Please model this.
Amino acid sequence: EHALGTGFLIKQTVENSIKDVKFINNRLSYLKLKGKFKTIYLINTHAPTEDKGPDIKDEFYETLDQTLDTFTSYSMKILLGDMNAKLGHEQMYKPALGDHSLHDHSNDNGIRLLEFALSRNMLVKSTMFPHRMIHKGTWVSPDGRTINQIDHVLVDTRWQSNILDVRTYRDADVDSDHMLVVLKLRDKINSQ
Model:
């Protein structure tokens, strides 16, 4: 059975750096961390699936946009989660899109995500690192025959060099049809 929701699993050593946790709705939440020199926001998302109507998708992106508007401009914003977005290799989206997407063509959700990234001056870092195909797929169908890259990590262009890697770990036991997506972040977290 499918259920909506977002959440965070936090290592105990990071616990003291948490300044705020907010659940906007069943598709959107964020965690505010005190970095050594800047505030870091981790925004967790669960976008509508491809088959949902445009009104539902528009509402999701409007709420996401409004949420990001509440954060200070100099803070680091990392958007991560189930975007239900297949991203291809369309040239017109290259300012936000890397060369290492699993798919050849973007679906409607992919176009929406790329338009959002361009409008917010963000990069889809999950498409920017060269990995084997098995380390790009983030979702597997129940029959195990279809693998898609629909979970993504985005960051402000200003902070792009702080994301050192994004990849999937297939063997992680997360009791889900989604695989574990891990990003490596170069930054100092203030734990006081």
In short: The chain has one domain: 12-185. The two ends are 41 Å apart (CA to CA). The first helix runs from residue 54 to 69. The chain has a mean pLDDT of 89.
